[in-house]
Design a protein that fits this description.
Blueprint lengths: L24 H4 L10 H87 L7
Length: 132
């Protein structure tokens, strides 16, 4: 079964879905050249930022990732069910009906408007324009 394939523990975003949340200290906090804090403050701030971001992310995923994964599994199962058993068959029925309607209107237009357009074409083809 394809759903139980091996999980890649190194590259966890192979399709680059969440590149917009790749945030590091330098992306959030920056000091201009005219204003610098003490080097030890800057170094400690960097460490505290990275550590707290990493620890809190791990804590939040530990607490909430399983229930959220369960919810999203159900949601995508429902979406798949809808498409397989409702939307795709409904679109197929609609397509069949539209094909029949297209043939019906084509015949009507050819029978009713075709002769009128052909007559108008013959009438206007007899007009000659002379430039003087």
């Amino acid at each position: 079964m394809d759903s139980f394939r091996e999980v890649d523990l190194v590259n966890r975003d192979p399709n680059d879905l969440n590149s917009h949340v790749k945030v590091s200290f330098e992306d959030v906090i920056a000091e201009p050249d005219s204003s610098h804090s003490l080097d030890c403050v800057w170094t400690c701030s960097h460490s505290v930022f990275e550590c707290s971001k990493g620890c809190w992310y791990k804590f939040l995923t530990l607490c909430f990732s399983l229930p959220i994964s369960f919810f999203w599994g159900i949601e995508f199962a429902y979406i798949t069910f809808d498409h397989v058993w409702q939307f795709t068959p409904a679109l197929r029925v609609f397509s069949i009906h539209c094909g029949s309607a297209q043939k019906f209107f084509t015949v009507c237009l050819q029978c009713c408007l075709g002769p009128i357009c052909e007559t108008c074409g013959l009438f206007f083809s007899q007009i000659t324009v002379k430039n003087s």
